[in-house]
Amino acid sequence: MIKTEKIVHLKCSGGRKLRRVVREHYLREHVPCYSALCQAGCANDGKVLSAEVTHYVVPDVSVAGDYLEVLDFTELQGIVFTQTACQAVQHSRGRRQYNRLRGLLKDPRHDCVLFANEFQEYSYCPREKGESQDKWQTRCVYNAAVWYHNHLAGLKPVVMLTEDKDAVAQYSSLSSGVYVISVQDYLKNFWPELQAAQELYCSITQALQEKESEGTEREYAEHLPADILEAGIKSGRYIQGTLNVNKHRSQHEAFVRMEGSSNKNTDLNSDVLVSGSKNRNRAVHGDTIVVELLPKSEWRGKATSLTAGTGDEKTGEDAQSQPMPTGRVVGILQRNWRDYVVTFPPREETQSQSRSSQRVLVIPWDQRIPKIRISTQQAEALQDHRVVVRMDSWESTSLYPNGHSVRVLGRAGELETQVQTILVENCIHVPPFSEAQLREMPVTSAESPWTVDPGQASERLDLRSTHLVFSIDPAGCEDVDDALSVRMLPGGRRLELGVHIADVTHFVAEGSLTDLEARARATTYYLADRRYDMLPGVLSADLCSLLGGVDRYAMSVLWELDAQTVEVSRVWYGRTLIRSSYKLQYELAQALLDGRQAQEEVPELAPLPADARDAKLAQLVQALETLTHIARQLRAQRDKGGALELEGVEVRAQLDEEKNITALVPRQPLEVHETVAECMIHANHWVARKIQESFPQHALLRHHPPPRQEFFGQLVDSAKAMGYAIDTRSNKALADSLDRATDPQDPLVNRMLRLMATQAMSNALYFSTGSCSQDQYYHYGLALDRYTHFTSPIRRYADIVVHRLLTAAISLEKGQVPKGPNKASVLNKELEEMSQHINCKNRAAQQAQKLSTELFQCLYFKDKDPQEHQDCVADAVIYAIRANGVLVFVPQYGLKGAVYMRNREGQVLSVNADGSCEWQSGSIQRHPDHISTSSSSGSSTFSLFHHITVRISVEPSRCHSDSLHMEMISNKPHRSPAAGPQSTQTQGCRPSLVQEVVRQAEEASQQAQEKAARGPKLSKEEREFRQSKVPNLYSLLEEARELALTDLSICTTR
Ligand SMILES: [Zn+2]
Question: I need a surface site. Which of 117, 627, 825, 937 has the fewest CB within 10 A?
Fold first, then answer.
């Protein structure tokens, strides 16, 4: 080992002064090369570059810094990032770029490695006197490239990428086998097919050039340096938080949600308003920012009137509420920029813009994001398309942020483009599973089906002949996560309940490619018309799925219970081998319980002789009844503790075989859903107890924090207006008072109140036990002291983590020491990061599902004439009063929205004698429980919880998503001409888990129907024709979808 000295320049924390430091620098002969071709026996642990590629690529500092997105293409393989380049990116490109690079290096799906060239004795070169930093770094990278080539005995050509023309001239002919070329030449010569990479290259280059030619006139105040911000936050002068832009008033109104502990300003317990773009000072929705409060005289109130998304802004004093803390942005701690879907401005505008330059202001689909300036020649050609762009910078001299385009998503208006937009906007990345991932899967086929391994059989508790195991699932369900068993134990006083869960972790090894992909996805994504699985189909629909009549591995929990009180006296956790006897559908199980169904309906019994069939059926019905009994007892216990029945708006689109929406139907729960759900809650609770006891510092649990009292305001006020008292002090008090708040005349009142209670709730979240104190473990909604997710490992990654923890807990009990690092604090930190990641992905999944539901709601109404079609007229209930209108709920479609009482011309809604409404000039008056208008024809009153009739129409939007518009056409309730099952529904208050089960039920049966109805396969031409036929947006078939996913860049080559 050789010691040398290295001079480094350190930036001070403020970023202004440079400090010269002499550092000891140790050189070694052996530094791993991480190549599979290594001839020198390097200690290459972990990720290794493939030997298969035709060449290796070594990007220099500026390429790694500026063109990392191009190197991000998985097609580009065999990339060696030098330590020199990585450190330079870290110091000069900011945290975002550095994290991206680190992510790339860590990701095993990307064929790239880090080479510590500055520690390698023969590749390191000290900086020469008078040599500029840039030149020296380029020389270091070149030396590293040469070293690589020599180290691998010339077996692999090495290509160094640099944008420095001098370097190309200087080095390109210096050493054979090492090529020095520009990124553009590289892409042209090596990747002529990869059009998307070349376009991305051009777009980044243009953005870089534009940046250089930026003006100097300042549009915004400069941001303060980091050390001043830090000191200001510490002293309480500044406040740190996340910027949240009001979607409906995106230009004018944003709020800063404070981050709890960082705030020393104790007399401040609300959000801080940031009004106007100058005060927002280049902060973008989602950024972590620092604000300074303005003097109280400049505080303002938030707008209380309803405003359309189209920018009908009202800023008059009368429309504003009480002044609230108001501030201005003084600095940005972290940009949380992502990929944005945008639309080019209409043709007329681009023409006037492009006369002076190539710059175009594109309009983000997300209304909270400002317009972005990009350079392109394609503004004209891409008029009708949606495009993905990234923001690069936002200087104080520029009114708008600068960015570059990344890829074309597709034509606006096409269903596939709209769905892809939802995915991009929520950072959901679900490419098809790669070859390498699929190679990890066990092989099973009709010729050689997968079989139980004898070794596994002997290690597992074999329940195949001792237990009657069955599953209850939605019709057509393929991924059976869970199965149940129940039996009376000898003596007749004790029962044994069993919950058996697919043993996914047996097939998905920790750290495998499949595992990493599942972790990255974190969940299966359910959209209104499709789903994206977390695991490959061979696992989710076959080997892990607890199908009937086949041997399957399971993770089981078995409880010994008192037959009457269901008190648990013993519990066993472990791996089992099961064979499910029945794969029941919910409807059939419910029918068997109700005594409504003949035995012929149970398919598994059909082949048996009559007497055997009767005996089997009696046994099954007995088991179902026992389960129901147990579930009712368990539920009663949780109710005593304060479990809540909440209400979500759950409506699904019913599609016909052409994917046309035929109806929007509210979901219908059955008691058996609740029975299954209760058993799953029980299992999740007991597994939570087990892993928390075994790993008090690093178990993955799920808690549901109590809601903030101020969020109950609307619920309490609205209930009070109706004469009900809602007590929100505890979950028990809330549950009881909600139960009392029923109007015998109108069941919807109770439903609405539960809906408001649900809206006031915080989200349930995963966490690591070491990161919270025990009193924070509580699950408010389920009223359980500990809870986790164990029962759906096929579609939730959290459950996979929990299965691994449970396995570790079981081996710990047997005296085996778990493998891997076992320092509790490290494991806690890792697990907490994982929890955050899963929470974040779950939010994205929920948001995507909501958006896709809204998309389909719009599509449902889009081709119906609101003046003619009876579906466009519906009954609605007023649930909140605003200054210029009301918020209503439409039960038939599960829609919520605004109904204006004053239009843009200033007219107000007035009611005629027959209840019909019309616009007249007049005034409007808001009260706590009603709103009234007065005009020449008299005064009209609209009260909370009153039923009205609304007309629903679609408001199209060029750059954003279409939205639904509702107008009141009568202040009388609407009587649907065909009051079928879609009309007012009395039940429907179920905990969220039940809703989840229900949702799955309906989805799967919908899929089953579709499958059955699909009939003969269509020809390729037919398919293509259907997909491109604009009016019929839903005739998208599986194959077309696959195609679009495989190559999203397909349309960029046009
Ligand atoms: Zn080596």
Answer: 825
